Q: What sequence folds into this?
C-alpha cells in the first residue's frame, strides 16, 4: 500500500553527543508526496543535520524518522563531503554513479544532463566548471534512476544569479511536472518563498511549517533580529 | 643482467609493484591519506619481524600485520573523528614499537636490514608466488570495487545515498593497501615504500586529465620509475629502494618543469 507521506518524523530528538542539549528537539512532521519543502533557519539551527537524519546518515537520539521514498536523489553542499579537486570528468562522474545505481542504460546520463542543460560538457573536468555548472551536473546525477524524492543542501550557495534562476526553474518543473518531492535546505529566502509549496522553519532546534505566502508577509514584517519564527 | 635468476625475479616483482601501487595510491592521494601509506609501510616492518621470529614467510607476516594495522586505523577513525594524524601516531607507535622490540631482542635468525632499504637478492620463488597471488587478488578486488572507491574518495555522501557501504569498503581498502605494501617491501624497502605509492600518482595528476587517464599514467610513471630505478641501481651497485625513490622524484620534477615550460610557451604564443 502506498503511504500518504514521503517523509515522517515522530517526536525526534538529536544531538551529536547523544544527550541534551539537543541540536533538534521534538521534531514532528509529515511531508506529503509531491511537496516542495524549503528548510530554512539561521546558521547552526540544525538544517543540514535534519537533512542527514532524513538521508539516514545520522540516527535520532530519540524518536523516529521514516522515508517512503523508493529512490532518493541527493545534491550535497559543495563544501561538505565533496572533494572539489578530484580529477574527474563530467562523464566519468555520471557514468561511475550510474554503475553504482546499477542502471544498465547509458542513455540516462545524457538524458539527465540534457535536462539540466549540461549535455555539451561531458568531456569537461568537474573542477574546471563554474559553481552553477557544477551544481547542474550534481542535480543531473541525482536525477539518474528517476528518484521520487530529491534532497538538496543549499543548491544556490556561491552561484551567480543567472544559474540560480535556471536551477530553481528546473527544480520547480521537476516538482510540478514530474511529481518529484523536493526537500531543499535554503539560505536563499526569496527562492524558498517563490518556489516551495511549504516552508519548514527551524528555530533553536524546533521546527514549524508554514505556507510561503504567509511566511513572506510575516517575514517582511518581523524584526529578524528578535528571532521571530515568521510563521 | 637478465641472465641472472635474481634479476628476473626482481623485474617480475617490480612489474607487480608498478601495477598495484598506483591503483591503491591514487585513492590514498586523492583522499589525502598519503601518510597512511607511510604509517602502514612502517607497520609492515613489525610484520616482517613477526614473520622472521615465527619462522614464517616475512612477506606473509607483513601482509597480515599491515592488514591488521590498516583495519585498526579504520576502527580508530570512529573514536578520533577529526584527528587522523593522531590515529597514525598511535598505530605507528604500536608497529614500530613491536618491530624494534623484536629486532633488538636478538632472537631473529635472519637479517631484517634488507627490508629497510630493499634488495634484489632476497626475492625467492616462494616470494614470487605469494607476490603474484596477492597482486592478482588485489587487482581483482580493485576492479570490483572501482566505482565504490571512486565515489568514496570523490563524494562520500553521494556514495552512501547510492547504497555504498562506506565502512565495509574502507576495511577492504585497508587490506588492499596492506597487499600493495607486502608486494613492494622486498624490492623497495620499508623506508621509501610510501614514495612508490604516492609519487607516480602525484606525477600523473600534473597532467590535469580525468580519473581513468590519471590512473593509466600513474601506472606508466610507476613502471618507468621502478624499472629505471632497478636498472640503474644494479649498475651503480646501490640498494634499489633508495634509488627508485630518487628516480620518482626526478620524474616528478621533470613533469613539473615541462608543465611550467608548456604554460610559459602558450602564454608567449598568445601575446
A:
Amino acid at each position: 500500500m502506498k503511504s500518504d507521506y514521503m517523509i515522517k518524523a515522530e517526536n525526534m530528538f538529536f544531538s551529536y553527543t547523544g544527550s541534551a542539549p539537543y541540536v533538534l528537539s521534538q521534531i514532528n512532521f509529515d511531508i506529503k508526496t509531491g511537496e516542495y519543502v524549503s528548510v530554512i533557519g539561521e546558521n547552526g539551527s540544525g538544517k543540514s543535520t535534519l537533512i542527514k537524519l532524513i538521508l539516514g546518515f545520522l540516527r535520532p537520539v530519540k524518536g523516529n524518522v521514516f522515508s517512503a521514498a523508493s529512490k532518493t536523489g541527493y545534491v550535497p553542499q559543495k563544501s561538505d563531503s565533496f572533494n572539489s579537486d578530484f580529477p574527474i570528468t563530467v562523464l566519468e562522474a555520471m557514468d561511475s554513479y550510474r554503475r553504482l545505481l546499477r542502471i544498465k542504460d547509458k542513455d540516462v546520463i545524457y538524458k539527465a544532463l540534457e535536462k539540466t542543460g549540461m549535455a555539451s560538457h561531458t568531456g569537461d573536468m568537474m573542477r574546471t566548471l563554474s559553481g552553477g555548472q557544477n551544481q547542474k551536473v550534481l542535480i543531473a546525477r541525482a536525477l539518474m534512476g528517476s528518484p521520487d524524492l530529491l534532497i538538496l543542501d543549499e543548491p544556490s550557495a556561491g552561484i551567480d544569479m543567472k544559474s540560480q534562476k535556471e536551477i530553481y526553474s528546473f527544480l520547480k518543473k521537476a516538482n510540478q511536472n514530474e511529481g518529484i518531492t523536493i526537500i531543499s535546505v535554503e539560505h536563499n529566502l526569496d527562492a524558498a518563498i517563490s518556489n516551495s509549496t511549504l516552508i519548514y522553519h527551524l528555530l533553536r532546534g524546533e521546527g514549524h511549517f508554514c505556507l510561503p505566502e504567509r511566511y513572506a508577509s510575516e517575514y517582511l514584517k518581523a524584526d529578524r533580529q528578535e528571532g521571530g519564527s515568521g510563521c | 643482467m637478465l641472465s641472472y635468476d635474481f634479476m628476473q625475479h626482481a623485474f617480475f616483482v617490480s612489474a607487480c609493484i608498478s601495477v598495484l601501487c598506483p591503483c591503491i595510491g591514487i585513492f590514498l592521494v586523492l583522499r589525502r591519506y598519503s601518510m597512511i601509506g607511510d604509517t602502514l609501510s612502517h607497520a609492515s616492518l613489525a610484520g616482517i619481524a613477526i614473520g622472521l621470529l615465527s619462522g614464517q614467510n616475512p612477506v606473509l607476516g607483513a601482509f597480515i600485520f599491515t592488514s591488521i594495522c590498516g583495519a585498526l586505523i579504520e576502527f580508530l577513525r570512529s573514536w578520533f573523528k577529526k584527528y587522523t594524524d593522531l590515529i597514525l601516531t598511535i598505530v605507528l607507535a604500536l608497529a614500530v614499537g613491536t618491530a624494534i622490540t623484536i629486532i633488538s631482542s636478538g632472537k631473529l635468525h635472519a637479517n631484517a636490514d634488507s627490508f629497510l632499504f630493499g634488495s634484489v637478492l632476497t626475492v625467492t620463488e616462494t616470494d614470487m608466488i605469494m607476490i603474484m597471488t596477492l597482486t592478482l587478488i588485489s587487482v581483482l578486488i580493485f576492479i570490483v570495487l572501482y566505482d565504490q572507491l571512486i565515489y568514496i574518495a570523490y563524494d562520500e555522501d553521494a556514495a552512501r545515498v547510492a547504497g555504498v557501504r562506506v565502512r565495509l569498503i574502507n576495511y577492504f581498502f585497508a587490506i588492499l593497501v596492506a597487499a600493495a605494501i607486502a608486494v613492494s617491501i622486498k624490492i623497495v624497502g620499508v623506508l621509501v615504500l610510501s614514495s612508490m605509492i604516492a609519487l607516480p600518482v602525484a606525477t600523473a595528476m600534473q597532467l590535469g586529465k580525468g580519473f581513468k587517464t590519471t590512473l593509466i599514467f600513474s601506472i606508466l610513471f610507476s613502471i618507468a620509475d621502478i624499472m629505471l630505478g632497478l636498472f640503474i641501481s644494479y649498475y651503480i651497485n646501490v640498494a634499489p629502494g633508495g634509488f627508485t625513490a630518487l628516480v620518482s622524484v626526478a620524474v616528478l620534477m621533470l613533469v613539473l618543469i615541462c608543465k611550467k615550460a608548456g604554460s610559459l610557451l602558450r602564454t608567449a604564443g598568445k601575446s
The beta strands of chain A are 5-14, 24-32, 36-41, 62-67, 72-75, 149-153, 181-185, 198-203, 206-210. DSSP finds seven helices and nine strands in chain A. Chain A has a mean pLDDT of 87.
